[in-house]
């Protein structure tokens, strides 16, 4: 059975992706701060199918962290054929108030960690003819007010997806999923008004985490000739930003 490593998988979209992939993968749940939630999820998945889930911790702050995570994850089940770079920081950084620490947090989680973790796992993924799926954002292309650093980081992740797809082919496929209004931020912020966003979505509703999870599973399991692509799962919102 194939093995998937999902970063930031203890809650929200990461959890939904892990549960969906668990249907036909062993899953490795990466967490940073959410140890209790990660261990509870692993226990639940192992009740459904014994020896099918594990949890690993990493701050993902440095290239060394990423290399260590890759080694620890590979040791869980002996192989990895899917990497889902889902872990992400998200908060506003209005120009004039943004600082270097915010830059490091947003660029680090959304761009630096996906690169160095992908690089560390590339040999294992090539050996299993596996794939990488990055969680991008529709705002990688259409900027969100007051979120300049976040949008720039996600734009970098989109180019990283395309560049890695070219460089790692044919052994590893690399794609991205760009969510729209799926889960709302835990704290509403400038440029992210729920009512205004919903009014401009052609489908006239927000999506569900399962919409993202099923798309990830499709790219991983049922799309052997798709690489270097970014699939927007947004109810048409990117048509009307």
TrEMBL record:
SUPFAM superfamilies: NAD(P)-binding Rossmann-fold domains (SSF51735). Its EC number is 1.5.1.33. One of its GO terms (molecular function) is pteridine reductase activity. PROSITE patterns: ADH_SHORT. Keywords: Oxidoreductase. InterPro entries: NAD(P)-bd_dom_sf, Sc_DH/Rdtase_CS, SDR_fam. NCBIfam families: PRK09135.1. Belongs to the short-chain dehydrogenases/reductases (SDR) family. PANTHER family: OXIDOREDUCTASE, SHORT-CHAIN DEHYDROGENASE/REDUCTASE FAMILY (AFU_ORTHOLOGUE AFUA_5G02870), SHORT-CHAIN DEHYDROGENASE_REDUCTASE FAMILY PROTEIN. This is Pteridine reductase. The lineage of its organism: Bacteria, Pseudomonadati, Pseudomonadota, Gammaproteobacteria, Cellvibrionales.
């Amino acid at each position: 059975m194939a093995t998937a490593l999902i970063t930031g998988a203890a809650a929200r979209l990461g959890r939904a992706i892990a549960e969906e992939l668990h249907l036909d993968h062993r899953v490795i749940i990466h967490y940073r701060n959410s140890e209790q939630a990660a261990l509870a999820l692993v226990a639940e998945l192992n009740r459904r199918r014994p020896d099918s889930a594990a949890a690993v911790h990493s701050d993902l702050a440095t290239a060394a962290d990423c290399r260590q995570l890759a080694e620890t994850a590979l040791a869980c089940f002996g192989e990895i054929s899917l990497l889902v770079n889902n872990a992400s920081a998200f908060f506003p950084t209005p120009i004039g108030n943004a600082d270097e620490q915010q830059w490091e947090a947003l660029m680090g989680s959304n761009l630096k960690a996906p690169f160095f973790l992908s690089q560390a796992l590339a040999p294992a993924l090539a050996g299993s003819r596996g794939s990488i799926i990055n969680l991008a954002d529709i705002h990688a292309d259409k900027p969100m007010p007051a979120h300049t650093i976040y949008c720039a980081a996600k734009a970098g992740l989109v180019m990283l997806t395309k560049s890695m797809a070219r460089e790692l082919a044919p052994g590893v496929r690399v794609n991205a999923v760009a969510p729209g209004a799926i889960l709302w931020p835990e704290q509403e912020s400038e440029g992210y008004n729920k009512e205004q966003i919903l009014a401009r979505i052609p489908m006239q509703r927000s999506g569900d985490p399962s919409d993202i999870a099923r798309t990830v599973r499709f790219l991983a399991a049922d799309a052997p000739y798709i690489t270097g692509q970014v699939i927007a799962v947004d109810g048409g919102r990117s048509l009307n930003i």
